Amino acid sequence: MSDSRITAVTPLAGLRIVEISSFVAAPLAGMTLAQLGADVIRVDPVGGAADRHRWPLTAEGASIYWAGLNKGKRSFVADLRSPEGQQLVSRLITGGGQQGGILLTNTTDREWQGYDALTQTRPDLVHLEITGRGDGSTGVDYTVNAATGFPSVTGPIDHEGPVNHVVPVWDIACGLYAALAITAAVRRREITGAGSRLVIPLENVALATASNLGFLGEAQLNGTGRPRVGNALYGSYGQDFASVDGVSFMVVTLTPRHFRDLMSVTGTTEVVEALATALDADFSDEGTRYRHRDVLTALFARWFRARSAEEISGALSGTSILWERYRTFDELVSDPRVTANPLFTDLRQPGIGTHLAAGAPISVDGAYQPARVAPHLGEHTDALLRDELGVADADIARLRDPATDSTKRTNP
Amino acid sequence: MSDSRITAVTPLAGLRIVEISSFVAAPLAGMTLAQLGADVIRVDPVGGAADRHRWPLTAEGASIYWAGLNKGKRSFVADLRSPEGQQLVSRLITGGGQQGGILLTNTTDREWQGYDALTQTRPDLVHLEITGRGDGSTGVDYTVNAATGFPSVTGPIDHEGPVNHVVPVWDIACGLYAALAITAAVRRREITGAGSRLVIPLENVALATASNLGFLGEAQLNGTGRPRVGNALYGSYGQDFASVDGVSFMVVTLTPRHFRDLMSVTGTTEVVEALATALDADFSDEGTRYRHRDVLTALFARWFRARSAEEISGALSGTSILWERYRTFDELVSDPRVTANPLFTDLRQPGIGTHLAAGAPISVDGAYQPARVAPHLGEHTDALLRDELGVADADIARLRDPATDSTKRTNP
């Protein structure tokens, strides 16, 4: 096999992937594969899937979210309730030549798009389903997260009740696991000729992560899980501080050198050493710094409280300390880390407007690939019907808009 | 190329990857590649890297965290400060035959392991560095997160100041992007013969995610970013509720059917309809449900507050509503979703103890691969020195423990 389209920035060029998806995990997986060069066709029911109008919206009601997660794909719309529409999509999935036959789906409740049905015509299919839970039952990031334990340890120390994360971490991790699993399965198929039947349950992504990071092992081996510690860094010394002008900073010290620099810049070296002696504590040990974090924070906070954000930034800059000024989304979008970051493209997205959009966060030979526009819903339906599925022009209008055919049900 | 080791559960078998890493992102990337069948060798300095004693710890002081993120790898220890140690590791990276020559590193401050140095002997190297920020400066999940905007919208509505997430979402996403980028680059090398030079900055992973999900576009296009909405679902109706016996539930309704079921089960159909009429609101629209969430929550909460957790679970189970009972880590580890989940293996981890550990959250042909033990630090040093690097037995003891050679500096 040789393919001139395969370059360092398009390592997956040649692959043809069909995605039947909605919300975050599966669309992110497909978009990521497209960012690496694959031809990804997102399939939607007539009118779009349940994420078609997901917030945030523009003032005109277009979904910024939908545009953000479908960049660089082709869009195919079909009546997924009709046998004819299902057959067309099945042919799209199983076609595409040697490097087609790859399905990414999170809508597993339809038999026609199942592994068994599709491998009747394409035995080497790479079939990946994203499900809610391992038993196939439903679940979304918010419900899966509730069971993981994380909401009970996130948030202010004195808060009672769970605190949800805002970034949908399980969806993101699930989408990236899916992109990886497909890529690895493709490598296997290219070497052995065999396809794969893969399922990634969102809940198992969350549980595996909680296990990998030691949250579950801690509860099981030590008999008690991690407590809620607010913005403190667990097991080492890190904390947020506020300046006199009300700006918050996150400060992290992972090594003895970081911690010495924090004492030095805040002028607390002598008092912390006196404290260490009085407490018989060795602050070169990160666990000891963690256990005594409250008194240490009280000492350091005096220095932060007496200074402006600008003074604090200037003083911390010359040190080894890991630190960052907290920003809101409003501050971030006008910050050079976005406006002057080669990760971002000033993207003219039809229906949405021109805005800075990110490409894949993978620099290749020192450069990022520009972000590409998302399709409008059904943009590539006609071309795919005609060129890939061999449908006659006379039938294309009917298939494009089944609502005009009174014998067909329309999707809600 | 043909390789009998490549099966559906080991699609990356044959690959030999060297990982020079610490903390979360790079170790997670390496472990994930190992879970897919690759031979991953983690390289550490004498005494271990900075994450060697990272919390959580067992009562005996062993790192549950380290064991969790290094499962299924081989461990090689060398004096990374000495030219001799650097040369040995360089040979390990560039060796490994046709499918070796893959480096995953998050310690980019050493010239000898840079792309330019290593491609002198191995031009087809796949070289992936994880950095803090795009300009190469340092950053960790906690500091990167502070700049993303998420802490300003996470946490209770009435809370002032930032709320950090506890799950290190950027590290996790960065590690999975790294595993994917390496796998895609390997596919390219297998087809074209060419290597790749890849860099993934942790901060750019966070910014790309904020962009993909519309958080940045919303602030830029609408002039104002998302507010803090507590545990509410943004743009649709979802909320947490407490039972009379103090158990919290997360309830999510994404479709009109979900919402109708929530009204029905809580006996509020008539009152919500009266409310809709009085407010001239159409609750079949998810944005309308979101805008009126406070009054809706007040109505629904009465039903939850009057019932036990068991009654609530029973009533919600028969509906289409997406819901989950919040659990602590302590509750989770004895819950069937962990104890009866085929994702988990009762792993006997030397130095840590027997506990339930997760494999990769990817089911292949309906089954999960069992979790494998993590090595002890340096477990494979001797074998790799002898068998892969051709070091004479007389030199192995000296290289294994450079501290015994008084002419060498020891690592701190």
Features:
3-stranded antiparallel beta sheet; 12 strands; disordered C terminus; Rossmann fold; alpha/beta; 412 residues; 2 domains; homodimer; 17 helices; 6-stranded parallel beta sheet; 15% strand
Short structural summary:
The structure is a homodimer of 412-residue chains. Chain A has 412 residues and is an alpha/beta fold. Chain A has helices spanning 25-35, 64-69, 83-94, 115-118, 141-148, 169-192, 202-212, 215-222, 256-265, 269-279, 286-291, 293-305, 309-317, 329-333, 336-339, 381-388, 393-400; strands at 16-20, 39-45, 74-78, 102-105, 126-131, 196-201, 237-242, 248-253, 322-325, 344-349, 353-358, 363-364.
Q: What does this molecule look like?
A:
Chain A is an alpha/beta fold. Chain A folds into two domains: 16-211 and 356-410, Rossmann fold (3-Layer(aba) Sandwich), CATH 3.40.50; 248-325. Chain A has helices at residues 25-35, 64-69, 83-94, 115-118, 141-148, 169-192, 202-212, 215-222, 256-265, 269-279, 286-291, 293-305, 309-317, 329-333, 336-339, 381-388, 393-400; strands at 16-20, 39-45, 74-78, 102-105, 126-131, 196-201, 237-242, 248-253, 322-325, 344-349, 353-358, 363-364. In chain A, the strands form three sheets. A six-stranded parallel β-sheet of chain A has the order 3-2-1-4-5-6, with helices on both faces. In chain A, strands 7-8-9 form a three-stranded antiparallel β-sheet. In chain A, α6 crosses α7 (202-212). At the A-B interface, α1, α2, α5, α6 and β6 of A face α1, α2, α5, α6 and β6 of B.
How are helices and strands ordered from N to C of chain A? Answer: EHEHEHEHEHHEHHEEHHHHHEHHEEEHH
How far is the first residue's CA from the last residue's CA of chain A?
Answer: 45 Å
Give the helix/strand class of chain A: alpha/beta
Number of individual domains of chain A: 2
